[in-house]
Structure to design on (177 residues):
C-alpha cells in the first residue's frame, strides 16, 4: 500500500518532525503534511487522524486542540518556518482511501468499494488484521491481503445495513440476534 504521509519538499521536510511531534503529543497521528506558497504566506496543511475521545476519529474540538498545539510548535521553531503562514488542520474526509490497517479497523461493518488488479467490487468490512481484511462479498466471507488491494474507499449508505450481513461479519448466528 502507498505511504499515507505526503512529504512536501524544502521546508516541509524540516517541518514534518516538528508537526508530527506536536500532533503525537495531542494524541493523534500525522496523516499528511503539505507546505505550499500561497501569495506572500505559506500554507501549512496538516491532516491528522486517530481515535478521538468518542472512538470514532478526531472531533471538531480535538481538531482545534491539535491546531493550537501545532501552531505553538511552529511559532517556537521559526528557524524552520520563517515568516507569515496560514495553518489548516483537518481530518481525512470520508472519501480518504483505506490504506492502513487502522483505516480498515475503523471501517468495520461499513460498505466499501474495492479495486484489485483485475476486478472492482463492493464489500462489507469485517475484521482487519495487520496483513489483510475480512470482506463480505456477495454473501461470502473472504480474506483479502492488503497487498492485493489497489484502492478502496468507504461507500456512503443512507440506510441500515442488512442484519444478515452484520451477523456474518460479527460471526453471530442469524437466529441468535
Amino acid at each position: 500500500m502507498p505511504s499515507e504521509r505526503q512529504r512536501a519538499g524544502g521546508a516541509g521536510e524540516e517541518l514534518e518532525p516538528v508537526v508530527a511531534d506536536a500532533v503525537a503529543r495531542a494524541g493523534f497521528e500525522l496523516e499528511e503534511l503539505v507546505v505550499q506558497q500561497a501569495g506572500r504566506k505559506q500554507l501549512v496543511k496538516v491532516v491528522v487522524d486517530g481515535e478521538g475521545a468518542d472512538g470514532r476519529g478526531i472531533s471538531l474540538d480535538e481538531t482545534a486542540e491539535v491546531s493550537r498545539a501545532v501552531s505553538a510548535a511552529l511559532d517556537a521553531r521559526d528557524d524552520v518556518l520563517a515568516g507569515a503562514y496560514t495553518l489548516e488542520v483537518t481530518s481525512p474526509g470520508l472519501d480518504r482511501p483505506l490504506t492502513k490497517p487502522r483505516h480498515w479497523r475503523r471501517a468495520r461493518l461499513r460498505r466499501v468499494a474495492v479495486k484489485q488488479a483485475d476486478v472492482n467490487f463492493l464489500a462489507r468490512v469485517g475484521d482487519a488484521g495487520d496483513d489483510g481484511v475480512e470482506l463480505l462479498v456477495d454473501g461470502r466471507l473472504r480474506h483479502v491481503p492488503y497487498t492485493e488491494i489497489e484502492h478502496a474507499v468507504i461507500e456512503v449508505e443512507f440506510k441500515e445495513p442488512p442484519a444478515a450481513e452484520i451477523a456474518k461479519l460479527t460471526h453471530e448466528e442469524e437466529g441468535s440476534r
Remarks:
- The beta strands are 29-38, 41-49, 85-90, 111-115, 120-128, 132-137, 140-145, 151-154.
- The two ends are 36 Å apart (CA to CA).
- Residues 1-9 have pLDDT under 50 and may be disordered.
